[in-house]
């Protein structure tokens, strides 16, 4: 299977998601959060560093539930700061 290369926007979105998850994790260890979300610590580490910019929905949903994040907060990561213009 050939993977389609990630666009700069994909990479930026992955970095925003990773930063949000890292901030929500706070002082908790990667291992503790990963175990509670039933994923591997390496997967969480890769998501937080943007190396997996498009993780599976159920992985993100499990992390959101464990970290107390609403899916709307995660969905906001889809938009860049340039796209987040105020409503007229």
From TrEMBL:
Name of the protein this chain belongs to: Helix-turn-helix transcriptional regulator
Superkingdom, natural source: Bacteria
Pfam families in the record: HTH_31
Domain HTH cro/C1-type, chain residue ranges per copy: 21-74
